[in-house]
Amino acid sequence: MKKILVLATGGTIASTPHQDGLAPGMTIDQLAGYFEHNSDVSVDFHVLMNKDSTNMQPEDWLTLAKTIDENQHCYDSFIITHGTDTMAYTAAALSYLLHGLKKTIVITGSQVPVSFKRTDAKKNIKDALTFAQKADLSGVFIIFDGKAILGTRAIKMRTKSYDAFESINYPYVASIDDATIRIQFKPKNDTDSFSRKIDICPDVFLLKIFPGLSPAFFDFLKSHTKGLIIESFGNGGLPFEKRDLVTGVRNLVQEGIPVVITTQCLEEGQNMDLYEVGKRVEEAGGITAGDMNTEAIVAKLMWILSQTTDLSEIKRMLQTPIAHDLDYI
């Protein structure tokens, strides 16, 4: 008999109407009533927190990771019910924090509360149970709208539609329909280059470049962050004429602050060697992130900074694929 532990964190799936709008308010017994399952599987329930996922913090990722790690010998699989707004960040974070754990970890939620007449929650719960029981795949997966998405490759694309999430730069792992799983792309065994480290350094900053951004902002960051992620234009370029941001990158790197360069384009990654505006950034010390999602970069850099401040080691770790987060395309 498979044993599954459901960890509830709140989110829309467990929300009820309040005076100020929807907010998590369903009890664990009420939520458990929607987890219908056969007698050949045992399902336990535990409330870890009860919050809108907008309020989820890196410290909450640690709580989730430690709970799963402590219970790994008692359960075959884990299901986390979670709000959708930061679900992709949590999925990516757990992929690093629990790297190497040979368990199926499923994260699901809904766009509409489970208690509402028209809701996607019931299907997502059923699909999550099916995947947790039958998939026999290790790692972190988001189960939503009949699809299984690798935890490091999911992005929330829609605020209302049931198909809220998409897999970016990586194939969908499986489809789930009527308690049947169809594996579409089975991830290969992950690298064992790193030992499991359940720790986070949240002192990172995410900056989206736009025309007109003042280079003076980089001076502010020197004393306010331990790592910077820049969503650049196109293939990884930054302006160096008039408002010179490349020098800002160089100055931060010289201060020992890693600067990771990604792209505002969701698909197909980046190639900083293609244009002069990209090569200058690379020469200034910018670390290319290939085809990684921003959500994964944020979580990975926080995880890395909890282990080292050495720039060369940070670059090596960030550019080493973990949980299939990098360079599939």
Give an overview of the whole structure:
With 329 residues, this protein is α/β, with parallel strands linked by helices. The chain has two domains: 2-183, Rossmann fold (3-Layer(aba) Sandwich), CATH 3.40.50; 204-318, Rossmann fold (3-Layer(aba) Sandwich), CATH 3.40.50.40. Helices cover 26% and strands 24% of the residues. The protein contains nine helices and 16 strands. The chain has helices at residues 28-32, 58-70, 87-97, 121-134, 216-221, 245-254, 276-283, 294-305, 311-318; strands spanning 2-10, 15-18, 21-24, 41-51, 77-81, 104-108, 139-144, 147-150, 154-156, 165-167, 174-177, 180-183, 204-208, 227-232, 259-263, 287-288. It has an eight-stranded mixed beta sheet with strand order 4-1-5-6-7-8-11-12, sandwiched between helices. The longest helix is centred in the middle third of the chain and has 14 residues, at 121-134. Residues 3-186 form the L-asparaginase N-terminal domain. Belongs to the asparaginase 1 family. It is an enzyme of class 3 (hydrolase). InterPro entries: AsnA_fam, Asp/glu_Ase-like_sf, Asparaginase/glutaminase-like, Asparaginase/glutaminase_AS1, Asparaginase_C, L-asparaginase_C, L-asparaginase_I, L-asparaginase_N.
